[in-house]
């Protein structure tokens, strides 16, 4: 088993009743090298304890156990693993929401080791690393990093958690906007309520209102029964709307009304409903610019942007690249049971020089691919970045790269201007398509254009089309 610290970690097994299964769990932990202190303990004796990990053993009858829930509320920042009885048909969501992972018990030692290593990521890291020390403000939000730009954002997250107003999270794709929204929710007074995440960009235009606000039976042809929307699911908690700019104008108007007084009307309903929900929205485009172009309602922007959080891109967090790389490698070592793979000398400086247009998500995916495909133990810069590892730094502007040097003209001003614009368009589209690894949606976000419009331009220039 991969050790988290040089000394043994303490894993306290707790249950609300005297269950013989507690002893079996403790024996399994001992086999895996974990210290269980004095063995199974009842919840009421834990309030002065300081364990590394809690293992919560759920009663066989699957009743909602208030004592266990109060226990987890007592340790809101501690890694926890819920052990449900195997064969159970219903699992208590309120317990799952308060822990990091869950598994059916009994389970194999291999499965238990894997789950423990996953949840205990919050209490350790690579040898000598202090960025995941217990009590660190970043650990409390499941955020990994050491840079000052990240810590400023984290301090702001804690401030936003103290109130109940709408929040607009701004950041490029892959910067962790949903993770920040979860941090706001789980550090707020709504932590006991649900956190419902919706990717507005994935909602079909004709179904987005239905998905958000629900419908009554007979609202339309296929509405055979009543369906509650995401807003109803989030009552008492937080509704996170990612890619808010993708909502249609009609749904934007409906959402505006909801933000004004908390009321909404499901499709086909004869009366309005009310819901106590905090809304956190996220956008990877400039909403103010979209509002200025008439592509987003300015009054909705004002309602959403009561409080704002700006997440820095990874290129402004160079110090975090090494920390994140080691963090992801440790996860992959556990997942694929290959503990000996490592980053070769010189890899980290190369990764730090790269601009990471896809931010943390791109770093994770490239490391994942390199870890799986690399045959040798040492992962080199070329394994992670391919040909990009040897490329010089990109120019700050496409104009610097493509329009420097001498020009030869042979036509009128309008003709030469049209040719230059066409050439710029073709090169820019090729660049942004390549940066997004052929993902049209990601390319559209980076270009600040609607996906459909960008797709037409790509087709026009034969980029990505047969």
UniProtKB/TrEMBL annotation:
Matching InterPro entries: AAA+_ATPase, AAA_lid_NorR, Homeodomain-like_sf, P-loop_NTPase, Sigma_54_int, Sigma_54_int_dom_CS
Listed name of the protein: DNA-binding NtrC family response regulator
Keywords of the record: ATP-binding, DNA-binding, Nucleotide-binding, Transcription, Transcription regulation
PANTHER family, alphabetized: RESPONSE REGULATOR PROTEIN PILR, TRANSCRIPTIONAL REGULATORY PROTEIN
GO BP term, pick one: regulation of DNA-templated transcription
Sigma-54 factor interaction domain span: 143-372
High-level lineage: Bacteria, Pseudomonadati, Pseudomonadota, Gammaproteobacteria, Oceanospirillales
Organism: Halomonas cerina
Alphabetical list of SUPFAM superfamilies matching this protein: Homeodomain-like, P-loop containing nucleoside triphosphate hydrolases
GO molecular function: ATP binding; DNA binding
PROSITE patterns assigned: SIGMA54_INTERACT_3, SIGMA54_INTERACT_4
A UniProt-annotated Pfam family: AAA_lid_14
């Amino acid at each position: 088993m991969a050790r988290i610290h040089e000394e043994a970690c303490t894993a306290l097994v707790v249950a609300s009743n005297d269950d013989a299964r507690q002893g079996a769990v403790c024996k399994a932990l001992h086999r895996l090298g974990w210290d269980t202190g004095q063995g199974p303990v009842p919840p009421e004796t834990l309030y002065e304890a300081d364990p590394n990990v809690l293992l919560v053993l759920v009663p066989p009858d699957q009743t909602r156990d208030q004592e266990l829930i109060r226990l987890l509320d007592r340790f809101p920042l501690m890694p926890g693993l819920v052990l449900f009885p195997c064969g159970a048909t219903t699992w208590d969501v309120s317990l799952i929401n308060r822990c990091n992972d869950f598994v059916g018990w009994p389970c194999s030692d291999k499965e238990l080791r894997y789950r423990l290593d996953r949840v205990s990521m919050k209490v350790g890291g690579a040898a000598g690393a202090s960025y995941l020390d217990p009590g660190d403000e970043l650990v409390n939000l499941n955020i990994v990093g050491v840079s000052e730009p990240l810590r400023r954002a984290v301090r702001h997250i804690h401030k936003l958690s103290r109130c109940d107003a709408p929040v607009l999270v701004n950041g490029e794709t892959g910067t962790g906007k949903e993770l920040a929204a979860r941090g706001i929710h789980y550090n707020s007074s709504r932590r006991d309520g649900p956190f419902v995440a919706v990717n507005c960009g994935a909602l079909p235009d004709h179904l987005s209102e239905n998905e958000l606000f629900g419908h009554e039976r007979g609202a339309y042809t296929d509405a055979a029964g009543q369906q509650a929307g995401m807003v109803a699911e989030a009552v008492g908690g937080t509704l996170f709307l990612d890619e808010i700019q993708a909502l249609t104008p009609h749904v934007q108007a409906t959402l505006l009304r909801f933000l004004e007084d908390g009321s909404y009307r499901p499709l086909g309903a004869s009366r309005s409903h009310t819901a106590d929900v905090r809304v956190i929205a996220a956008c990877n485009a400039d909403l103010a610019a979209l509002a200025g172009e008439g592509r987003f309602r300015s009054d909705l922007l004002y309602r959403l942007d009561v409080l704002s959080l700006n997440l820095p891109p990874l290129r402004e967090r160079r110090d975090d690249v090494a920390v994140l790389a080691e963090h992801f490698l440790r996860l992959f070592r556990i997942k694929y049971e290959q503990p000996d793979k490592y980053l070769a000398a010189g890899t980290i400086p190369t990764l730090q020089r790269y601009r990471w247009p896809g931010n943390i998500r791109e770093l994770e995916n490239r490391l994942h691919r390199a870890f799986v495909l690399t045959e040798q133990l040492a992962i080199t810069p070329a394994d992670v970045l391919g040909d990009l590892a040897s490329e010089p730094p990109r120019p700050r502007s496409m104009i610097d790269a493509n329009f420097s040097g001498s020009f030869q003209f042979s036509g009128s001003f309008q003709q030469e201007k049209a040719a230059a614009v066409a050439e710029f368009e073709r090169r820019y589209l090729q660049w942004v398509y390549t940066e997004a690894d052929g993902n049209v949606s990601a390319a559209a976000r980076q270009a600040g254009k609607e996906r459909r419009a960008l797709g037409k331009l790509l087709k026009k220039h034969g980029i990505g089309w047969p």
